[in-house]
């Protein structure tokens, strides 16, 4: 039996045993996979799978008769066998993913140990060269990124706190700069519900169970090897358990049985908090504190919630009619219920640990006073437990805390009923926690009492950290809506009350801003409850009213950000502020607001206009006052106010959040142009904000795939323009990214740590290469050329839409039950303008073109190189090794090209094209093929790699494994889609042999399997 693990020409990583372990585990799961299939389906299916894999082996893939050989074999299969084969390959890839993730986690643990020991060694044996380097104080950080990006070994070791702080010390970074950054450190990761999560919740649980069994198997094997044994009953039992789990998985439906609701998606996203993040996150703060103390013992660590979480699930209503105000309310209640259950569970653990008696230790007077107050508030608890805990004050206090938590949970459950909600708003009950801060005060009181007597409690410390990070809301809900919805609402309101001399839609931008600014100074309401509005306008108004209700019930921390997608003008922002005023979120008298309005700039044109739009807003005194926290704060910023002002409503104050979108800019202009325009926009926005003394937080709307801004977060953050991070960043995390980053504890911690490390590095050691004007001009030319080439194919070729709809599985993808959100923003004409970026990227990934992530790059590079082939190639190679932005762009293109399979893509074209379309579709395929080969050749020339991904052997191995093994699924997908489309075209023969439901199910299974095999959807 062939093991689908390619031989590696170079060492896979620092640890020579790691790849051996991985190969052994891949061999194990493959053997178990085949054994399960033999039991469940018989030897005939196993033989068929091996035959398909043999034809698609590395040698077979090179043969010219591959497509015809495998097509002939697959076409002979009846539907039942084709579906079973599709399921089998899909299961195989998911097992491979589990093994890879498990050993990624293992490698990270080994890497952490190695970095820690190397740090200790370096501290003891500091060389003369290191001592000389540390004296370069005047150019702190100047060449750090140059060294880091040109030295692969250095880059591999970077990314961990144990590496970061000694390096900062070596570079003589002033401690006061580090302290200032740590005090303001703010990393926010926002989980989204975009339809990239194709795996069922049920399957996710099975994946975690298998990962846990693998961990037990590791432990068992390490134990018996340590005793000199060749095997043990523990390892045999673990393998038997693996076999049982895979059999149960085989008998479980992989596909969603129904289209998930928004609350189902909420549950999917919270799964990672529930299973991994809640318990893992205190360790992140602990690791940073220990690493900081070892290098800079006098510095204060950042606040525990320096890394926090947000969510769009249940708050993002852009194009999703199912996200109603009531659904958002239910989402907030669901999130609170989840986190309160976690805290309640912790009470039992704390009570078991905190058993000190008054006989043997003293207690703070504050705690004694608190217990007296609790006795008055909850006499029944005192009557029941005073005798049991008469000498154990901590346990008695925890009993009161637990009761308040239980009351809070009961109240939260009642809040989901609108009638109960009204009753609860009028009740005055002291015996529940209104906010997480009230709960936190009780926990800190216990902590202070323990510390006063020389005691610590790690369980209590962890719980306090969790409450500081998650509060009573788990994650902050962001609201998002498309800009035209607000304009429509304002236009309808203005028309009804006849306040304008002409329709709002006919006003110029200057007129709109003037009218909106005047209304934002008026205390006269525009809206009354009985106004007859359209359903869309009523929903827009009710959404902001719901935001206000949420803040009243759950506190400001539940939702502070309102994102406007497709922001085109400054008036788009002022329209939301005016609607917020009507909802009670903005006070015109003081210009204070309890909501931050974040414009989202998505298309290339919007990114170019973004600095001008923000400048227009910053010029408005009322808007600047809103950011600062009110008119009084503006005077303070100008230096005209000496009085001590109370804290601003929103913290931090004077902060403008701006979101930049990768997905739509890429779909609009192609990969290279999108990345460059986002890079330029960030620099320009930072410059504008700085001129108006406004702090800026950039919100990066990254997707899972390269075509939507995805890729390694560590490298991406380091590649941001200098000074644009400044200790603050907000990033979306979505779809398969959640599964690959947060499904295992150590994996989650590693990803969080590398992200925080990158933010600190980028802020303190930013590169100056972004400011070299000749480099920028060259990038501008490359970007412009690539955009032109991309749009000539995607938007200007009259045959392209038909090509896309025919040779990719986009029609079938739209029927997947994976998201509550429609595939298109608007119903109607089937064009690219209404298609969401996610299914756009997903479909090209399935058919192995991966077009959005590389098309146009090759021609742009070629036109630059032909001007002076030798010198310009040297220049591009210099950029690659010295300029972080260029390095990341080229590396992402290289990774994507490694996943492209044009031989497989050609099969989609040949088999799924109608006879009358073949000639024009072949022309488009040849055009794409030519650009691919040109791009691949030039990327390898720039990187100096003989093979794609030679610079990342681990990724190269993973891609090779999948490229070689995924081919049968592609052929099966083409066959099933072809049959399905023939059925839908009313073919009598196909009608006789199959039914539509079975054909569609088979096609869906191949989509599921290829997504797992590619480790990428949209």
UniProtKB/TrEMBL annotation:
Give the residue spans that cross the bilayer.
Answer: none
Ranges of Basic and acidic residues compositional bias? 113-131
One of the Pfam families matching this protein, by short name: PEPcase
Q: Which reactions does this protein catalyse? A: oxaloacetate + phosphate = phosphoenolpyruvate + hydrogencarbonate
Q: Which InterPro entries match?
A: PEP_COase (IPR021135), PEP_COase_bac/pln-type (IPR022805), PEP_COase_Lys_AS (IPR018129), PEPCASE_His_AS (IPR033129), Pyrv/PenolPyrv_kinase-like_dom (IPR015813)
A GO BP entry is: tricarboxylic acid cycle
Q: Which cofactor does it need?
A: Mg(2+)
What protein does this entry describe? Phosphoenolpyruvate carboxylase
Segment Disordered: which positions? Answer: 113-132
* Entry keywords, A to Z: Carbon dioxide fixation, Lyase, Magnesium, Pyruvate
Q: Does the keyword Magnesium apply?
A: yes
The protein's superkingdom reads Bacteria
Question: Under the GO molecular function aspect, what terms does this record hold?
Answer: magnesium ion binding; phosphoenolpyruvate carboxylase activity
What the entry lists under NCBIfam families is as follows: PRK00009.1
Q: Which family does it belong to?
A: Belongs to the PEPCase type 1 family.
What enzyme class is recorded for this protein? lyase
